[in-house]
Design goal:
Number of strands: 10
Shape: globular
Structural class: alpha/beta
Distance between the termini: 54 Å
Order of helices and strands: HHHEEEEEHEHEEHEHHEH
Strand order of the largest sheet: 1-2-6-3-7-10-8-9
Helix content: 25-40%
């Protein structure tokens, strides 16, 4: 045997040994985070937020404080960094209540941003009656927290994305979108500073705002016998509908998708342009998307509780939003 032949054999043996030492079948991809979107975890988050401890989560109440504190703890557990020294960004609602957005930051590799938000407030306890707000909008917050956990997990595995994601649990939606207006005013005023650089997050560097508002219901399907549906409201040219369609087609999600509010131009305009938390961003030219499963007969009623949701379908909706975000960030 020649020296070159022996060297080649030794090199091949070394490479074979190294390959055998690696975990078999392991690839860092988005699918590595799928297991974190589990029904039990989603149910637990919704159940906590709609429990009597949170008293319906009206802005400025002790129940709201319990909710926002729990959200901040999970932000910290998922490696989200606060802007400044605190996750809590306080403001007064239009009715004078003391409210707080909870804001966390997951760094990307570039200098562009995507905002992902869901409001956690609800109407509270009125005349001694608790309005749990499970679908509206504990379901959206459960989705938000799960998405934060999934992207953090991928980052720990070594996966990076170009965009930095700003996760926000909004307060004050039930009071004229006070929380989303405050968030926009912080950005416009240069008060939201990137923890990496200390510099303000520029308006022009925000490529997309994604609002998750009520995604747990199954009682108002788009088509008969398809409770597994999801609506995505956006401008056709700016919301990247194709990203959701491809994600839905190429994964096991396979939801019944809609891109307007039950075929009504008027209701689509109202929900997309007027009464939901993406409005301040749209008003300032930021492309925005709203994910929703629509209003049901349980809205703002005592029957909107944790047991009324289908967590298998909620999980599939979270996966659809996750794979959508993977494609746009």
């Amino acid at each position: 045997m020649t020296r070159k032949f022996l060297s080649a054999c030794l090199l091949l043996a070394l490479l074979t040994t190294l390959a055998a030492a690696q975990p078999t079948g392991y690839i860092i991809s988005a699918s590595n985070a799928e297991h974190l979107a589990d029904e039990a975890g989603l149910r637990s988050r919704v159940a906590f937020l709609s429990d009597s401890l949170c008293t319906g989560r009206a802005s400025g109440t002790p129940g709201s404080l319990h909710a926002q504190s729990a959200i901040a703890r999970q932000f910290a557990a998922y490696g989200l960094r606060p802007f400044g020294s605190s996750y809590f960004h306080g403001f007064r609602t239009v009715n004078g209540a003391s409210a707080h957005n909870v804001v966390g930051f997951l760094p990307g590799s570039g200098d562009r941003y995507v905002v992902v938000a869901a409001h956690y407030d609800h109407i509270g306890t009125l005349a001694g009656t608790l309005y749990p707000g499970a679908d509206s909008n504990a379901s959206g917050v459960a989705a938000l927290l799960t998405l934060a956990q999934m992207f953090h997990h991928l980052r720990e595995l070594g996966k990076t994305y170009a965009h930095t994601i700003i996760f926000v649990a909004l307060d004050g939606k039930e009071q004229s979108l006070s929380g989303s207006h405050h968030l926009w005013n912080e950005i416009a005023g240069g008060l939201l500073r990137d923890p990496r650089t200390g510099l303000p997050v520029p308006q022009k560097s925000i490529d997309l705002m994604v609002n998750i508002d009520q995604v747990g219901g199954t009682e108002a399907p788009l088509h008969k016998n398809r409770p597994d549906y999801l609506m995505m409201l956006c401008e056709p040219e700016n919301g990247r509908r194709d990203a959701l369609l491809i994600a839905n087609l190429n994964t096991e999600v396979k939801l019944d998708l809609g891109f307007d509010y039950y075929g009504s131009k008027d209701f689509t305009r109202v929900f997309y342009r007027t009464i939901s938390d993406q409005k301040p961003f749209l008003d300032h030219g930021i492309p925005s998307v709203m994910f929703t499963s629509g209003i049901t007969l349980r809205n703002n009623k005592v029957t909107d509780d944790a047991d009324s949701l289908d967590y298998g379908i909620l999980r599939r909706r979270v996966l659809a939003m996750f794979y959508y975000l993977v494609r746009v960030i």
